[in-house]
Amino acid sequence: MKTSLLLGVLLLWTLLQAHAQEFKVSGKVTAAKDGSSLPGVNIRIKNTNRGTITDGDGVYELMARSSRDTLVFSFIGFQPREVVIGQQTTVNIPLDAETTELDEVVITGFQEVDRKLFTGSTATVKMANIKSTGMNDASRMLEGQVAGVTVDNVSGTFGTSPKIRIRGNTSINGDTQPLWVVDGVILEDLNNVAADDIITGNANTLTASSIAGINPDDIESFQVLKDASATALYGTRAKNGVIVITTKKGKSGQTRVSYSGNFSMNLRPTYKQFDILNSGDEMSVYREMYDKGLIDITTSVKAQNFGALGKMFNEINAKNINWGPGGEGSLNEDYLHQYETANTDWFDVLFRDFSLQQQHSLSLTTGTDKHSSYYSLSYLHDNGQTIADNVKRYSGTAKNTFVFSPKLMVDLKLTGNYREQKVPGTQNRDFDPISGRFRRDFDINPLSYALNTSRSIRPYTSDGTLEYFRRNYAPFNILEELRLNFINISVADISTQADITYHILDNLTFRSTLMGRHATTKREHVIHERSNQAEAYRADGTQYIADANQLLYKDPDDPSGLPMVVLPEGGFNNVTEDELRNFYVRNSLDWSHTINEIHHINVLTGQEIKYTNRTSLRTDGIGVVYDNGGIVNLDPKMIEFLSRQGIRTYALAVDRERFAGLFVNGAYSYKGKYIFNGTVRYDGSNRLGKAKSSRYLPTWNVSGAWNVTEEDFVNIPWLNSLKVRATYGLSANLGPNTSALLNLQSGVTLRPSDVETYLYIDALENRDLTWEKLKEFNVGFDYAVLNNRVSGTVDFFKRNSYDLIGLIQTSGVGGNPYKYGNYADMQSHGIEFTINTQNLRIGNFSWATGFNVGYTQDKITRLNFNPRLGDAIVQGGAAVQGGPRRGLYSTRFAGLDQRGIPTFYDGSGEIVYNYDLQDRENIWNILHYDGPGEPRGAGGLTNIISYKGFTLNALLSFKFDYKIRLDDAYSPRYTDFNSLSRNFVNRWVVSGDELITDVPSILDQRVLAVENPDYQSAYDLYNKSTVRVADGGYVRLKTVRLSYTIPGQWIRRIGANTASISVEGQNLALLYSDKKLNGQDPEFFSSGGVALPQPRLFTTAINIGF
Fold first, then answer.
1. pLDDT on residue 49
2. CA-to-CA distance for 978 and 997, rounded, in angstroms?
3. What pLDDT shows up at residue 658?
4. Of 47-51, 219-223, 539-543, 811-815, where does the model show the most confidence?
5. In 3D, which of 155, 184, 150, 187 has the Cα closest to residue 165?
6. Is this entry keyworded Disulfide bond (predicted)?
7. Which residue has the higher pLDDT, 426 or 943?
8. DSSP conformation class of 642
C-alpha cells in the first residue's frame, strides 16, 4: 500500500510539473498575397497530437509545452509552414499560395469550374481584399482593381450607378454597362437608364442602380467575366461582360455573431480647387459691363436674372436709394461696396463640413451538416454632403441551406432593402440644338450654384435676414429655394430565391433556380408656392417682364392679347412611381465523367425563362397650396399652357419583357493539360422585330487552354505555372429603344388657330430590328514564377460589333423621317496586364503589390447616319464614322479679331465667325478631332504591408488617353448673377491684345445690337473650340487604410472572439491631372441636377465577432 501511495504521489507531481511548463500560444493566419484572414487553417505541434484550427477571422490559440516546440501550419491551396515557437507567445503567420489562382474555383453563375480547366478570361475579387469601409455602394469598390474594367464615378450621390465598362464599348447608343448577376440570377436595374444618361444628373439616375441596395458586408466575392468564353452561358445579354456577385452563406460549426460599424466624415469642397474670381475682381468686370451698356437701369429692370448691380439699379428705380455722386446713370459705390467685399464662400454656405455618415451591420452565422443559416441586418444613415441631401437605407438578408439527404439540397434566400432619400429639386437636362449646349431650367444643385453664382451675392443681409436677388424674373435666395424645392425618394425592393440541387447519379446533377422580385420607387418633387420655380409662373411685375417671361400664358385666339398668369397661387407636386416585377426560372442538368483519370468530360444543358414587367406612372399636381392644407387652385388654362409646350401632366408607360433561352455547354480535358470548351445558346426576346430571324438568335463560343507546366518536358525551376488560353465566339445584346412597334402619340399644333389635338407617329415600326452582335477573339496567359511570388495574367483581344442600333433616315413616306434600325458597325482591340508580387516576407512582416492596367481602342467602321455639326461638338463627345464611340470634336480656333471676337477656320481654311450647325457632310473637314471622350486606359496600383496585427493598404487608381471639354464659360452677354473664371483677368481689353491672349472680349451692347449677328454665335463656338479642351488623364490616391487586429487575450475579457479597428481615407488627392482643370475632378464634369462629386472621406471602423 505504501508503494502504491508513493507511485500516486510521484504521478501527481509529474502531471503538475508538466502542467506548470505549459503556456498559451495564439496568433492570426493570413494569406501572404493580400493579407486576408484564413479560416480553417490546421495548426498542430510537430510530433504530437496537439492541434487546433483557426476561426472565421483566422485567429487561433493552443497550449504548448516547450519553447522548442514547432508549430506546423497547413491549409488546402497554401504551402505548409513550420515555425519554432521560441520565446514568442503570439505567432502571426502569412501563408503563401501553393499555386496561383489557377487552383481557385471560377463562379460563373451557372456552375463552379476549377480554374485550371477554365478557358475564359476572368478575374476574382474577394470583398475582404477591396472593401472600402466608408463606401456604401459595392460597385464603386471595383475601381482600379481589375484590368480592363473602367469605373467612372460620375456622381457621388447615393443611388447613382457608376459608369462601368468592361473592355471598352460594344454599342454606340445602347447600354455599355456589364450584366450584374447575384447568386446566379441576373439583377435587373430598378429603371432603365442609358449609359450616356448616367452623367446627366437627372432625378431618375438615383433609382437606376440595384447594387446600391445591397449591403457590402453581405458580399463574399466578385467574379468578373470578360471574354466570349467566360460569358458564353449568358448569350444575348453578355456583350458588355458579366460581374457575378456571390453573397455569404451559413457555415457548419459554432454559432457566430458579427458586428461592424463604420463612421465617416467628409470634407467640403473649397474655392482653392476651382478657378473662380473673388467678389472684388468680379465687380471690376461688372463695371466694364456697365461701361459697355450691358448692365444699366433699363436692362436691369427687365432682366431675367440680376445680382449686385442689377439690384442697385432696381433699388434706384424704386426710389429706395440714390444715384452715385456723378448724378443720373452713375453707380452708387457706397451701396456696391457691401457686395464688392462680400466674397461669399458658397461652399461654406451650402455644404456640410465633417458631415457624419454611419453604417451598422449585424450578422449571425450558424449551421450543422444538415442545415446552415446566414442572417444579416444593416442600417445606413448619411447626413449628406450638402444642406439639401440625406439618405437612410435599411437592408436584411436571410439565407438557409437544407441538406435533406446526400442527394437533395435546397437553398432558400430572402432579401429586402428600403431607402428614404432627399435631394434638391431638379428638372431633366435638355439639349439646345441651336447653341449646342445642354441646359437645365431651375437648377439649384448646390455644387453648380457654388461654381456658377457670383461671390458678390450674399445669402443674408447685414441684419441677418435672407437677401433676395432675381432669378427667372422672380425673387431668389438659394437657402430658401432648397428648403421649398426638393425631391423625396423612397425605394422598396424585396426578392426571394430558391436553388434546388438533386444528384440523380454520382455524376449527373439536376439544378433548378426560381426567383421572384418586386420593387417600387417613388419620386415626389415638392415645389412650394413660395419657391422661385413657382413664383416664376407669376412674374409679371412690369410689361417688359410680362412680355419676356415665357412662363406666362398667351391666348392663341387673341394674338394681340397681353400675357397672363395661369398659376395664380400654389406650387407643384410632381410624382413619378415606378414598379418592377421580375420572375425567373432556370433548370439545368450537369453531367461529368472521367475515363481512366485521363479524360474528363463535362456537359451542362438547360433552359431559362424571364418575365419582367415595368410600369411607370407620372402625375403632376398643379396649383397645390401647401400653406393652406394642400388644397388645389387650378386654372384650366394652365393645362392648356403646359400641353402646348409638350408637357404632359399625366403619363403611364408599361413595358412587358419576355425572354427565353436554351443552352448547352461541353468541356473536355486530357490529363488536365489540354482543355476544349464549347457553348451554344438560342435566345428569343419580344422586344425585337416580328420576323423570326430578328427576334431569335443563336450565340456560340469555342475555346481552348493548354496548361504548359503540366507537360513532362517542361521542367523549369522558376516557372511554377503557365496556362495559354484562346477564345472565339459570338455574343449579343438588346440595343437602345428596342421596341420595334409603331408608336403613336397625341400633340398640339403650333398654329394658334388649331384648337384640337392631333395624332403623330413618334416611332415607326421595324419588323426587321434585331440584336446588336459582337464577335470576339481573345488570347491570354496565366502565369506564376519564382515560387509563386510573382503571378498574373496577360490578355490580347479583338472585337467586331455589328448590327448596332440607332436612328436611320427614311424616305418619310411612313410619316416620320427617322426610325431605329441596325445602322452601324464598330471594331475594337486591346490589351490587359495584371501582376501580383510578394515583395518581402520576413518573420511577421510582409509586403505585397498588385498592378493592373487595361487599354482598349475602338473605331466606328460603318455609320449610316452621321450627326449634325451641332451634335458633333457636344460636351461628352459624339459618334462619327472613322472615330471612336464618343469622340471629342472641336471648332478650329483661329484666334481673336481686332475686337477680341473669336474666329474659326472653316472647311476651306477661311476665317469665319459661325458655322452651319446643320451640316452633316463636312464634319472631318470643319472640325478638329481632339481624341476620345471616354478613357481608353485605366488601372490601379495596390500595396499591402502587414506587420504583426497591423495592415496598411493603399490604392492608386488612374485613367489615361481621353479628353474633356471644359465647362461653358464665355458668352456674348453676361449678367452680374454669374461667377466668372479667373481667365477673365487675361481677356481682350484693347486693340492689340489679340496678339497676346485667346480669351475673348466683353462685347459692347451696340456691337451686339447692330453689327454682325454671327458675333453672338462666335462665343458659343468658342466654348466648343480647341482651346477649351483638356486632357482627362489623372492619377488619384483613392484609398489609404490602416487596420489593427486586436489580440485575443484582450478582447476575450468582453466575451468576443475577434476584433479589429481601422481608419481609412478616400479620394484623398489628385496626384496628377491637367493644369487646365485647375484641380477640378476629371470624373465629375459638366453635371448638375442631383449629381454631386465624390467627397474626401475619412472613416473609422470597428469589427467584433462573438
1. 72
2. 23
3. 92
4. 219-223
5. 150
6. no
7. 943
8. H
Could you report the per-residue pLDDT of 124-153, keeping only the tens digit for each?
999 988 988 888 899 999 999 999 999 998
In this structure, what C-alpha cell is assigned to residue 475?
A: 425673387
Burial class (CB in 10 A: 0-12, 13-18, 19+), 533: buried
Strands across the sheet containing 185-186: 122-126, 219-225, 242-247, 179-182, 185-186
pLDDT of amino acid 242: 95
Model pLDDT, residue 5: 44
Which of 236, 280, 374, 204 is closest to 985 using CA atoms? 280
CB 784 within 8 A of CB 840: no
Q: What is the largest CA-CA distance in the chain?
A: 132
Percent of the chain with pLDDT over 70: 92
Domain ranges of the chain: 21-98, 102-250
Q: How far is CA 823 from CA 611, 706, 768, 921, in A?
A: 29, 39, 12, 17
Give the chain's count of helices (H) and strands (E). Answer: 18, 52
Sign of the dihedral defined by the CA atoms of residues 627, 632, 635, 639, in that order:
positive
> Rounded to an integer, what distance in angstroms lies between the CA atom of residue 590 and that of residue 583?
23
**The residue to which cell 394681340 is assigned:** 560
The arithmetic mean of pLDDT across residues 1028-1049, rounded, is 93
- Contacts for 51-54: CB closer than 8 Å, 24+ residues apart: 54/28, 54/29
Give yes or no for residue 901 having a pLDDT over 90.
yes
List Cβ neighbours of 700 (8 Å cut-off, separation of 6 or more): 232, 678, 679, 680, 681, 729, 730
**Side chain identity at residue 135, one-letter code:** M
Confidence of residue 103 (pLDDT cuts 50, 70, 90): very low
Question: Under a CB-based contact definition with an 8 Å cutoff, are residues 1030 and 1085 in contact?
Answer: no
**What is the model's pLDDT at position 400?**
96
Please give the full DSSP string across 536-590, using - where no structure is assigned. Answer: GGG--SSHHHHHH-TTSB--TT-TTSPPB-S--S-EEEEEEEEEEEEEEEEEEEE
CATH class label, 102-250: mainly beta
**Start-to-end Cα distance in the chain:** 51
- Provide the 3-class DSSP secondary structure of residue 598: coil
Q: For the chain, give the mean pLDDT.
A: 88
Cell of 786: 519564382
Q: Is 348 helix (H, G, I), strand (E, B) or coil?
A: helix
Q: Which helix (H) or strand (E) holds 314?
A: helix 308-317
Q: Give mean pLDDT, residues 976-982.
A: 91
Dihedral sign from CA coordinates of 282, 284, 287, 289: negative
Asked if residue 703 lies in contact with residue 666, where contact means CB atoms within 8 angstroms, the answer is: no
Burial class (CB in 10 A: 0-12, 13-18, 19+), 693: exposed
Q: What is the DSSP string of 319-337?
A: TSS---TT-TT---HHHHH
What pLDDT is recorded for position 281? 94
Q: What would the pLDDT profile of 123-132 be if each residue is shown by its tens digit? A: 999 998 898 8
Residue of 253, 244, 217, 249 whose CA lies nearest to 105: 244
Q: Are 926 and 919 in contact (CB under 8 A)?
A: yes
The DSSP call for residue 429 is P
Query: Does this model's pTM top 0.85?
Result: yes
Amino acid occupying residue 60: Y
Record the cell numbers describing residue 601, joined without a space: 468530360
- The type of residue at 37 is S
**Rounded to the nearest 5°, which phi and psi values hold at 103?**
-90, 0
Question: What's the CA gap between 94 and 86, in Å, rounded?
Answer: 18
- Quote the CA–CA distance of 555 and 566 in Å, as a whole number: 11
pLDDT score at 751: 55
Q: Let me know if 883 is exposed, middle or buried by CB neighbors in 10 A (0-12, 13-18, 19+).
A: buried
Q: Which fold has domain 21-98?
A: Immunoglobulin-like (2.60.40)
Per DSSP, which regions of 906-1028 are E strands? Answer: 911-912, 927-932, 937-947, 950-960, 963-965
Confidence at residue 3, expressed as pLDDT on a 0 to 100 scale: 44
